[in-house]
Structure prediction request, 832 residues.
Amino acid sequence: MNTVIILLITFPLVFLLSLLFEGIDRKVHARMQKRIGPPIIQPFYDFVKLFNKERIIPMTASSRIFTTVPIIAAAASILGASIPVASLIAGSNVGGDLIIILYLLTISPIMVMIGGSSSGNPYGAVGFSRKMTMLIAYEVPMLICILSVSVNYTSLAYYDIVLTQVKIGSLLALARPSMAAAAAAFVLCMPAYTETVPFDMSEAKTEIVHGSLVEYGGPYLGLVKLAKSASNFALSFLAVSLFFYTPALLERYFSPELGGAMLLCLVTTLIFMVFTMTVPRTIFARLKIGQAFKFYWLVPLTLSIISVALSILGL
Amino acid sequence: MTEKFDEVKEVKVDYTRLRVPLGPVHPALKEPISLTVTVRREEILDVVIRLGHVHRGIEALAETRNLIQTLYLVERICGICSHSHTTGFVQALEEIGEIELSDRSLHLRSLIFELERMQSHLFLIGIMAYEIGFDTLFMFTWYEREKILDLFEEITGNRIHHSMNTLGGVRWDLSPSFVEKVNCSLNKIEKSAKYIQEVFQDKTVEKRLCGVGVLDYDEARELCVVGPTARGSGVKVDIRKAYPYAAYSELKDDFSVVLRNTADAQARTQVRILELFESINLIRAILEKLPDGPIYKESVIKLMKKIPEGEATSLVEAPRGELLYFVRTNGKEGLWRLNVRTPTIPNVLGLKPMLIGSEIADIPVTVASIDPCMACANRITVVDQDKRETIVTDLKNLRNRGKKQ
Amino acid sequence: MKLGNMLRDALRALLHKPVTVRYLTRAGEMVSVPERYRGKIVYDKEACIGCLLCIRTCPSGVITTTEEKKVSFNISRCVFCAQCAEICPTDAIRLGSDFEIVTSEKEDLIVQ
Ligand code: SF4
Ligand code: SF4
Prediction:
């Protein structure tokens, strides 16, 4: 019962945090381009604005799928983001293990993809095929990373892995060579998951007009955007707490209160997000789908397989 | 009847093909052009290019105005190369009226010309960066462009439509303090041009530009493409060298024609980046040589009255390539016929061979790499809305129209 | 062939002030314009001698005559080419530095 209440409390928290993080991301991006940029709370304005707009469903769309899909996407990614946050707050495992979280976080891109292709727009179709390719490219290394973690610590429970870091008093990424490889592969998968340049070809604005999002507008677009920023936040938070749980470093000197640990973790998440999303999207050009696919199967996949091999060897 | 029936039967429906409309409104296109692209997965099988979405009737409008009014009208054919358009027009008029220009005004004309070329090239380089999703480079490049626009604002009073040309000269003079300012800005721009050149060798950028939109030498010759598009394919065309106008006959030795042989989007971008340096050299030479003298002749009204009936053609090298003006005056301060051939017309033809066989992801890059200016290129299509048909006027009709008046 | 060429400059830009400026419309806070800037027309009615040369050369039909043999300008059509100022024999027309000319009152755009 207690866990359910905590989970319910985290929903609005995750909502606020993910939009706030997106705002910060946009601001930093703008400042790197020598622009003033939008105010940090711009995503909130956008959200409210989109919800006050007209609902438009294209004639060619199959309207049921088109309208329900954003709701599922937003719900899944907010839930996926809430589980790790709630686990940290409650100090125990809430809701499910890592596989559930990753599964929930994969639902939202798949839902958006389906929605896009149900709109009947050819760009949606191209976006679908590109997104599918990318999904295969990054999901495989990502799952293998998680597999490697579980081989190492014989657990797939999220909070156990966080606790392990606290116990050994160091970051997981620094603990063993196998984990370092896993963390590197995971970090490399981040830009593809969050669909930022150089891997944003599934919604490349100048090529296929935002791909799956092309026909979305009004509240539906608001939900899709919310889903995106929530899952971006969730994935960064997950990566940080799995591999770079910084409060673990301070455990030796003093035991931070729950709020302190949470705050530290969030700050780390923010820095992590800036370096895995904002910086790449500032300094790179968009790749082509073939090039990106090649990259993912050459580098992160190899890294993750190495990581699994190392963990089986017990390193 | 049976024949037809057989024919229908033979048609195989290829479900792997997808027809993607690109434009007339598309975020990658700054101006409306409609490309209907047939793709199989990511590969392009066929392209149909249609122009005519922004036909403005400027040539016809020009026939209803007097020469000075037309001067400001042709300036508005294109925002980016407004000086090229007025130069082309004014040169033709000066040829008809046999007006001699002072050296200083010719040099000032060339100066603005080169500043405009730099501005236009930086514009396109920024667009290229934007098309490949490199927004930061886009912002940085346009920030450099802003410096040139500020120079324009100080010298002529406006950033885009500078209206520098007038009949028999130019309208604003360059005082020594301006010379200093231009020199100062040039140094800054040169430094950042080098930086931009370096960034364009970034690996992700090269991955997107190399081997994209190839238009080989023979095809380029055949389609008569002009400007940087041709020079990127190794065709040596430059009006400034071939038919020097303004002060270019005196500045022949101060610049060279940049050629590249790889014939892809990267080559065309490189040509533009290197031309920035050529322009900087040219401007420095102009500022050094700048002769003294008056900048314009006499009141434009008087000059306009003196222009007899006659016709002339003039060629200038606009930033995008060769720009041709055909002007026929009626001797009563007006025009009988104005015909403009902008560089985009031949360059757009090059799009089809460039696009076929490449990927969807290459379309924006390829289209941008020829630096299209659609609004300039739309002219001789007649759209009859009641009959729902489109007539493309041919040369003969146009000639007849000229004769009638 | 280098990777991440812009990283240094992007990070450096974080420490500097942005180059864009806010668009402020209140008097005194607007960005300054250069001396030769061509803004809203300033018309000196006294100096005008009614020769109507400006009407003949204006490319966009801004200028119309008034009953008292003077001229009036409809700025909403003006393209700020300054041809009228150049041709005027008595310098009755000048292009000022006012660029903030958007208004909801049509009358504000008539200069007499
Ligand atoms: S040109 Fe000058 S003097 Fe002549 S009518 Fe116009 S404003 Fe008056
Ligand atoms: S500035 Fe140009 S458009 Fe405006 S009134 Fe004068 S001549 Fe006409």
